[in-house]
Amino acid sequence: MNDATALAGIRRQIMWNRLIAVVEEQAQTLIRTAFSTTVREAGDLSAGVYDTGGRMLAQAVTGTPGHVNTMAAAVRHFLDRYPIATMYPGDVFVTNDPWLGTGHLFDYVMVTPVFRGARPVGLFASTCHTPDVGGVGFSAEARSVYEEGTCVPHLRLREEGEIDEKIFAIIMANSRNPIEARGDLSSLIACNDVGAARLADMMREFALDSIDELAQHILDTSREATREAIRKLPRGRFKTSMMLDGYEGPIELHASLEIGDGEITVDYAGSSPASGRGINSPRCYTEAYSVFGLKCIIAPAIPNNAGSLAPFRVLVEDGTCVAPLRPAPVTARHVIGQMLPDVMFGALAQALDVKPRGPDVAPVPMNGELHAP
Fold it and tell me: Would you say 251 and 243 are in contact if contact means Cβ atoms under 8 Å apart?
């Protein structure tokens, strides 16, 4: 390695560290300005930076898996409706669509484009759990998403710096806590603005006209590191299941985990049909928590971004409890969704031949750097 190559590597590492600092300041801004305690005290939020293609590059350390991994896919839905070429400095976009966001109506996703001059260079996204969106409230008792609250489709909330007060008026009119609802949404706008300002500062400091080259390096490196971690696992197909309490009857979760050459496919075929109550986990939430469970064991030290998520594929059957179709109720999607990491652990335990441990049994060594939990 010559000096120029070494210096280029050091420069990329410094810029990567700066990106992490940028998104963490973005998240801290949200925490410090949010109105609701679920954000300020519970950290029920996520924040991240994306390239102009909607690929997540870096995320804040602060946040929850359900928000972070669902938001990784949510930004692409915004770009499907508002291509980057139709965005302008000062624009902000919003939705709380459960199927195209984070899984239930309580989580608003906010997306803000970043410009260097007149040219878009990236996007910031953030999400948090708002206190009330109308409907029956935070309960699984609703029989459809229409009873669960007000759904805001993908809309331009701020156009070239001007807030569309009509959107705020609709949201506030349908909330039991209108001041808190507006306050949290304003906090999402503010945290994205802080992220955008800090990214602009970074680009000026490093004399960057674009972050595309840095983005590609981050994604390529993370993807290959994840593939290498997967290649340490034994190949094959491993099946597991879990039974949960339900409303109409027990909920059965069935999963098949197929480990290939640097990639993993999860198939939830055979899982129970969607429940008539709001415990169903939309596809986006199912994918988020499944991949979270896999990464915790397989590649915990690799940054979470579009590159490291790419080797994982999650298959679901529409109309099941892990892929309910609109207008199925989904408010309490965590009842099923947050069990999915344990389902993944069950399949990986078979792949790694982990034996049950008691207090007098020594840990079982695993492949490579993996160890029994």
Answer: yes
User: From CA 311, how far away is CA 231, in angstroms rounded?
Assistant: 11
**pTM beyond cutoff 0.85:** yes
- Name the DSSP letter for residue 85: G
Looking at residue 66, its pLDDT comes to 84
Residue type, 224: E
Residue 326 zone, left/alpha/beta (φ > 0; ψ -120 to 50; rest): beta
Numbers of helices and strands, H then E, in the chain: 11, 11
Q: Above 70 in pLDDT, residue 357?
A: no
Contact residues for 197 (Cβ-Cβ < 8 A; gap 6+): none
Query: H helices of the chain, where?
Result: 3-33, 37-40, 65-81, 145-148, 165-173, 178-205, 212-231, 283-298, 306-309, 334-337, 340-351
CA-wise closest residue to 340 among 250, 249, 226, 255: 255
Is the pLDDT at 356 greater than 60? The verdict is no
| Cβ(142)–Cβ(331) below 8 Å | yes
Mean pLDDT, the chain, integer: 93
Task: Give the bridge partners for 112, in sequence order.
Answer: 124
pLDDT-based confidence at residue 366 (cuts at 50, 70, 90): very low
CB neighbour burial string for 5-43, b if at least 16 within 10 angstroms, e if fewer:
eeeeeeeeeebbebbeebbbbbbebbbebbbbebbbeeb
Please give the backbone phi and psi of residue 105, each rounded to the nearest 5 degrees, phi first. -70, -20
What does the radius of gyration of the chain's CA atoms come to, in whole angstroms? 21
256 contacts 266 by C-beta, under 8 angstroms: yes
Of 96, 141, 130, 122, residue with least CA distance to 276:
141
Segments making up each domain of the chain, as ranges: 3-210, 232-351
353: its two tokens: 């031949």
pLDDT given for residue 371 in this prediction:
29
Q: What is the pLDDT of residue 194?
A: 98
Strands 312-315 and 264-267: parallel
Least confident range of 56-60, 62-66, 130-134, 361-365? 361-365
| Sign of the dihedral through C-alpha 223, 47, 63, 106 | negative
Confidence of residue 369 (pLDDT cuts 50, 70, 90): very low
